[in-house]
Amino acid sequence: MLRIGVLVSGGGTNLQAILDGIDSGKIRNGKVEVVISNNEKAYALERAARRQIPAFCISPKSFADRARFHEALLKKLEEYALDLIVLAGFLVTIPPEMIRRYRNRIINIHPSLIPSFCGVGYYGLKVHEGALKRGVKVTGATVHFVDEGVDSGPILLQRAVEVEPGDTPGTLQKRVMEQAEWVILPKAIDMLANGELPLGEGE
Ligand code: GAR
Fold it and tell me: Which atom of ligand 1 is the closest one to the Cα of 16?
């Protein structure tokens, strides 16, 4: 059974898609052991608590400096002996020591077809604002391994979504979530848990 930790910052609809995927059997051989948010108000924490999944807020604001925050985050992850860490709308930079420790064992969902509309400054609605501004006709979502760069790690799965006339960042975000994110994130986890995609060893 793949032991999964999910890191979140907001509403947690991708976390919900993972939990639903486990319930429905779309994700085989995986279990969410812990959910961690940097934001105590994240609704995702409530989604986890409702399922009796251990849920914690570890916020940079509670620590004297970034190093101590990173230490606390890593310590909590280690406690749960995780095989896979999923960034499901986690808007905090991942410390290099964590990337090394879990090399090719951390995945991220990004709401565009990387390499478009990704990197520094592209997160959440800003991604869809960028896509609409550029006038692309097709966008989508990407699941990728996390490396030391921003949205630059190896790509695992992508799915395209049509931009429709009259779209706003909000309507486009909703369509990308429904048609792409909530499909490919559970699928990537299932494939990693069942040897259909390769998991790293850590360093
Ligand atoms: C999702 O759209 C996710 O792709 C995006 O944040 C949203 C979180 O929603 N992530 C990024 O932009 C990362 N660069 P959720 O909390 O409802 O899952």
Answer: 18
